[in-house]
From TrEMBL:
GO molecular function, one term: antiporter activity
Species of provenance: Clostridium collagenovorans DSM 3089
GO CC list: plasma membrane
Role description: Multidrug efflux pump.
Lineage, top ranks: Bacteria, Bacillati, Bacillota, Clostridia, Eubacteriales
Keyword line: Antiport, Cell membrane, Ion transport, Membrane, Transmembrane, Transmembrane helix, Transport
This protein's name: Probable multidrug resistance protein NorM
Membrane topology: Multi-pass membrane protein
Main location: membrane
Transmembrane segments: 23-48, 68-89, 101-122, 142-163, 170-193, 205-226, 253-276, 296-315, 335-356, 368-389, 401-421, 427-448
Localisation per UniProt entry: Cell membrane
Organism superkingdom: Bacteria
GO biological process: monoatomic ion transport
Keyword hit for Chaperone: no
Amino acid sequence: MGTADIQINGLDDIKTSRIRRSILRMIIPIILEGVLQMLASFISMAMTGKLDATSIAGLGLSVRITQIIWAFFKGIAMGATIFIAQAYGANDRKKLRGITIQTLISSIIIVIGIQQILFWFAPKIVTLIFSAEGALLDTTVTHLRAVSFGLPFLVIMLVAAGIMQATGDALTPLIVAVVMNVVNVIFSYLFIFGGLGINGMGVKGAAIGLAISQLVSAILYLYIFFRKKGLIGKVNKSHFKLDMNQIKQIYKVSLPSSMEAVFLQIAVIIVTNVVLGYGENHLAAYQLAVQAEGMFFTPAMGFGVAATAFIGQSLGSKNIKLAKAYMKEICIETLLVTSIAVIALVFFPNVLMGLLTDKVELIEIGVIYLIVTGLIQIPQNIGTVIVGAIRGAGYSKAPMIISAIGIWGVRVLGAVVIGSVLKLDIIWIWIAIDIDLLVRLIISYVMYKKKNIYENAIIL
């Protein structure tokens, strides 16, 4: 039951229980999908971990590059969800179908161009970003070229999943993710190590396995969209016509979200390089601790998506009371879930780090990070919800501005000054990250109140 269902029933007295059920129907699949992705990541790491050090390092560098591309199109999908949520809430099926088609077509055209650039200029790109050479350069280029063929399918998956979540359907993306990850694990194993008549290809095999799983995922989404009763319906010539006016509208809203995601990935690379200056143990501990923290951040991201979808739907249907009711309930549920995260991170960090490594020196470093980051979980997650609500109301540039001030003005600048200039203890970098999240919460709340998003929503 989504916002549209509540609206159709004409309820003046909005029942909290019905709103809660709508939120949980979206949040639970998103959380399960996040857990599934994390489990699949663990399995993939275990498989690639059996390769030589150069292969592992090369794969890591390749992933850093593709993550930037992933972030760009994740942002495009995020921007499209604002249109979709509002159109769905207004029950405007024609607009919903048009936005879906134009976002898919334009994204595919752009990513094909990016894929060609990656394939033909991979050596120059890798050298420019990481200054890799020799065997490491060759391995990174091999993986990057192979994985580039899956990028068009990845984009279809990202856009389709975002669109479905914007309509309140998080179950379908979960099912597709299950299929994708099972296929990825099976084919990655076969192509990495060999079997069933297939010769093992090492790091190249990992890329091929991933590309195949992305292809399967894209096929499933296209079938879901273009089936008789699908979101788009049966295929016809009109589906392949570019509507430049509509595309301009989509990207005017989507590009700020896209740039926000890309800049975040670049910031991650910069902070990671600063942490590396403290030594490989600190970097390894940081990466493991971030992974442990990620287990608790997935629900927060889900609540942020829910805020964008349900508030966008409510304001699209011009039901301000319903939008406020959703926001209140999402914040309450976020606080409840986040409280569990705070307890786990602050009081049981040794247990969490122990699940990821048995090296005492890494556990000791990672524990400090988890405690410091645990203290900021509530501001971080409430800030994520507020930003999601601002997006749902049609304000796409505000989240980018908030992110730029916090991430670049506090986190990156702070990390560089602390680690590279002042040479302070690494705990001060963790504190700078906390300050970034607190600053973003304050700015988000001020914008949320100042713009009065419910009365001044931008209906796209």
